[in-house]
Write a structure and sequence with these properties.
The protein is α+β, with helices and mostly antiparallel strands. The protein contains 8 helices and 8 strands.
């Protein structure tokens, strides 16, 4: 039985709310450096726990054209939900974000990722989900993305934005594999599911509250 299926059976009062603002102390800064301006659509691959909520957040961000839930960090042969859920594949549940850099920058996406999409101080877990498949990771596609990600993590740690050190991995993207169709747009199709209500809708609310200027109308 998958771990998340066990979570659904718990009383609502025992479900853990996963909010990235938990443990956050200081105001959230913009990245000191960003990927140079470019034309044409770009992609970013980010892992921050269950992909349902991370996808739901970025689908609401201005300049984001497409978000796909999937897997990164492992082999194509093991990129399916049941196998990844064993925690033995090297994959992390991830999202591939296609965005217009003239409307939103890579650095701005990372600001949302670190501040509202997940908690980057949790090691190999997010809220009620445990295992390396739920780890915090940035899969960079080029040297500019690597430089910005590493610099931003250092900036946030030095500013002590969180009460604990960031544990997000920054690792090269070797492949992204889309998850099964029923995982796509899962949040929007299951707004009343207890897991979504307690773990993911607070992220959407935080996005709208903290960054209304970055939200789609």
């Amino acid at each position: 039985m998958l771990k998340r299926a066990l979570i659904f059976a718990l009383p609502l009062s025992l479900l853990t709310v996963s909010a990235a603002f938990s443990g956050q102390k200081a105001a959230f800064p913009d990245p000191a450096i960003d990927v140079p301006a470019a034309t044409g659509l770009q992609t970013a691959v980010l892992a921050g726990g269950c992909f349902w909520g991370v996808e739901g957040v970025f689908e609401r961000v201005k300049g984001v054209k497409k978000v796909v839930s999937g897997f990164a960090g492992g082999d194509k042969s093991t990129a399916n939900y049941e196998t990844v859920s064993t925690g033995s594949t090297g994959h992390a549940e991830s999202v591939e974000i296609t965005f217009d850099p003239t409307q939103i920058t890579y650095g701005q996406l990372l600001k949302i990722y670190f501040s509202v999409a997940h908690n980057p101080t949790e090691l190999n877990r997010q809220g009620p989900d445990y295992g390396t498949q739920y780890r915090s990771a940035i899969f960079y596609g080029n040297d500019d993305q690597k430089k910005v990600a590493e610099a931003y993590i250092k900036q946030l740690d030095e500013a002590k934005v969180f009460s604990r050190q960031i544990v997000t991995q920054v690792t090269p993207l070797t492949g992204f594999y889309a998850a099964e169709a029923y995982h796509q747009h899962f949040l929007d199709h299951n707004m009343n599911m207890p897991y979504i209500v307690y773990n993911d809708l607070p992220k959407i609310a935080a996005l709208k509250k903290e960054y209304p200027e970055l939200c789609k109308r």
